[in-house]
Amino acid sequence: MANLDVPSTLLSNSSSNLSMNAPHNSDDLLLYDQPFQSRLLVGTALYSSPEVMAHAIDASGSEMVTLSLRRQDPTNKQGQAIWQHIQQSQCALLPNTAGCHSAQEAITLAQMSREIFETDFIKLEVIGDDYNLQPDPFETVKAAEILIKSGFKVLPYCTDDLVFCQRLLEAGCQVLMPWGSPIGTGKGLMNPYNLQAIRDRFSSTRLIIDAGIGKPSQAMTAMEMGFDGILLNTAIAKAHDPINMAQAFAHAVTGGRQAYLAGLMQTRQTASPSTPVLGTPFWQHK
Questions:
Q1: Distance of CA 275 to CAs 139, 214, 283, Å?
Q2: Pairing with 141, which of 12, 109, 242, 265 sits 20 to 30 Å away (CA)?
Q3: CA-to-CA distance for 55 and 231, rounded, in angstroms?
Q4: H-helix segments, the chain
Q5: How many helices and strands in the chain, by DSSP H and E?
Q6: By three-state DSSP, how is residue 227 classified?
């Protein structure tokens, strides 16, 4: 890896993030007791330019962005420009361990990220299969246990496997990030039954759908199911108009959350008239 010395002006200390100083609302998203008003987390990769990325982040209303120390080299000119825009957004940083294939590799990268970005938050990714980028459950749990003991606030990328999620909670994670479908596919929620089972079983755990969301409607569906947030990157960065797409996702996440809190009607097997017969004129009876 190239020299990772970062100019001090590019460092983003999480304590300077606006969301930490904002009033705590009853429906804030709490991640390890830190409140966020926005439930949409966005990535910083794949954009056509740093300027487009910055405008998209602003349009999304996100208060936390994820970035990879491994895949975004801060020593090159574009890398520094990206970091400057991220700092100006005043979003909290969620460094990730993308590209790691072992617990030790992820732990080392997490420690470097904490030193450079001055945050205990880490999005833990330990990939077990390079074809579909499915996380390795054994190495992920191993890394989570060590990082939690080291004071990290771990947000682990995992599948929709109930037992995998249970092991991560036993390791000390307070937030889980199950995939909707493989990273970058845009296929949405491939296994809604599994995801609903996780939501129902771990009712007090913060659950964020990470990976696979391609459309605002898919994000809204996840929020209507009771998930606490959405993390995505490709769906915005690779849209024809990333800025407008970021706004669309922001509306979808907010609308889905509002619908969940309002309480969705129960589905029925038979039709039911929306207008009651009792009390209506006889000529309207059918």
A1: 57, 38, 14
A2: 12
A3: 17
A4: 18-21, 50-60, 77-89, 103-117, 137-149, 162-170, 192-201, 216-224, 234-237, 242-262
A5: 10, 12
A6: coil
Tell me: the pLDDT tens digits for 269-285? Answer: 888 777 666 666 656 55
Q: What are the residues whose beta carbons fall under 8 Å from the beta carbon of 21, sequence distance 6 or more?
A: none
Residue 5 lies in a domain: no
Q: What residue type is 275 in one-letter code?
A: T
* pLDDT tens-place string over residues 194-208: 999 999 999 999 999
**Could you list the active site residues?**
123
In a domain, 207, yes or no: yes
Report yes or no on 180 lying in a domain.
yes
pLDDT category at 63 given cuts 50, 70, 90 is very high
Contact 14, 121 (CB under 8 A): yes
- Partners of 31 in the β-ladder: 34
